Every structure is written in C-alpha cells, then in structure tokens.
Amino acid sequence: MRTILFMLLALVSLRCAQQEESAAPPPPPSSPAVVGEMTVKEFDALRQQGSAPFLLDVRNPEEVEIASMGADLLIPLGELPARMGELAAYRDQPIVVHCRTGRRSAQAAQELVDAGFTHVINLKGGIQAWSQEIDPTVPQY
Fold it and tell me: What pTM was estimated for this model as a whole?
C-alpha cells in the first residue's frame, strides 16, 4: 500500500511539473524598434563627414518651396501610409525624418517604426532648428 501511495505521489508530482512547464509564458519578443532623436548639429556633422543617413522630409510641397535642407525624398505626412513602399530599400537602414519643427516628423517616425522600419530618427527642431543653428540662409516660416 505504501509503495502504491508513493508511486501515486510521484506521478502527481510529475504531472504537475509538466503542466507548469506547458503553462509557462512564452519568452518575451525581441525589443521593438524605437524612434531615436538627433539634433541638427549631429546631423550636420554626419553630413560634413559624408556619412549622413537618408533624409526624409514629411512637410508639404509648398513648404519645401519656402525652405529646404536637401532631403533625399519628400513624402508629406498625410501620404506616408500609402507611399511606404518607396522607402522599402531603407527598412533596415538609418532614416532621419524632418519637418518644420519636429512634431510631424516624430509622428511619421513612429509610423515607420510601427511598419517595421528599424533605424528611424526624428530630427529635433526640424528645419527651424536647422535655420537657427546651422544655416541662417534657410528661411524660417
């Protein structure tokens, strides 16, 4: 009787251990990409070294006519979801996003990260900061 009781306890313990293992939560997913930030001085230094990342302007075309800092591509914020395919080659490359002050570019950068882009950087202060700190010939508006 004692042996049977011992065997039953052993089986119950084994069964409980198996259930705990199968009920264990899955390992956490790898850290999601996050939006970084860069100052205009940092971007200018990279540009002067010839190693500036891809620069995406998310302002509207009429704003670009007023002031520009030579972006690689213009995709207005409202068009970004429909035009993400144009950026597919940069999915795992650094992309700096800029606008007038940094608000729209922060939103655009988050949309890119949410779409799977891994190295997205918001340009703090946008073209206004560029005009104030780097190139005063760029008009402010």
Answer: 0.76
